[in-house]
Amino acid sequence: MSKGAATRGRILAIAEAGVLAKGFGATSIEEVIAEAGITKSGFFYHFRDKNELAHEMLRRYVATNDRLFDDIFARGRELSDDPLQAFLIALKLLAEMMSDLPGAHPGCLIASICYQERLFDREVRALTARSVEAWNARFLGILQVIAATHPPREPVDLADLAEMLSCVVDGGIIMSKVLHDPRRLERQILAYRSFVKLLFSGKEVPRLQRRRGADLVQAS
């Protein structure tokens, strides 16, 4: 890697950490320059302005997550020829990896952008939407293959089920940070995994009814 590419990568990493920690608005170019140990002209050599920095930061984040999903789901397919079992293995691997938050995964840049979308230009907002749609489409493709060989026991919209995984991961990241408990994200992914397993495994799913306030008991 050239010196220029290394500097550019360091700027992006510093900016991403700042945005995830305190938001885009509170992360200044001056702060990034100081931590990167470069001059202001050095920063503007790599990025025209803060919006261009946001574009590249988001592209870098999306590419990193794409590689993560590629590796995890490929590993699941290597360990099982059955699409359901391969997906369950991948979800288990994902949960284990996410238990090391922020070590293995720094947080959700997409969520940070959505919370402050007025600070970003149209291109950043469009790239954010396309990224989420692409991840939902990836998960939907996997679920469609599963449903072809393991018909779900309950009526379910596979697109909604695919989007649920994105919601679980992003929501779990937020909850883990707010409650200072990295294992919350891991448990949420494992809960999603259990739901998928019950839905497609062919086992009877216990019917539940509400009784005595919030208590849930199995119906007869």
Structural class: mainly alpha
Q: Evaluate the radius of gyration.
A: 21 Å
- Which word captures the global form? elongated
CATH evolutionary superfamily of the largest domain: Tetracycline Repressor, domain 2
Distance between the termini: 65 Å
DSSP strand count: 2
- Separate helix tally: 9
Sheet-strand content, in percent, reads: under 5%
Give the CATH topology of the largest domain.
Tetracycline Repressor, domain 2
Q: Domain count, please report it.
A: 2
Descriptive account of the structure:
This protein has 220 residues and is mainly alpha-helical. It has two domains: 1-47, Arc Repressor Mutant, subunit A, CATH 1.10.10; 58-203, Tetracycline Repressor, domain 2, CATH 1.10.357. It has nine helices and two strands. The protein has helices spanning 3-22, 29-36, 40-46, 50-79, 83-98, 109-115, 122-149, 158-178, 183-200; strands at residues 208-210, 216-218. Strands 1-2 form a two-stranded antiparallel ribbon. A hairpin with a 5-residue loop joins strand 1 (208-210) and strand 2 (216-218). Helix 1 (3-22) crosses helix 2 and helix 4 (50-79) packs across helix 5 (83-98). The longest helix has 30 residues, at 50-79. The protein is elongated and about 60 Å long.
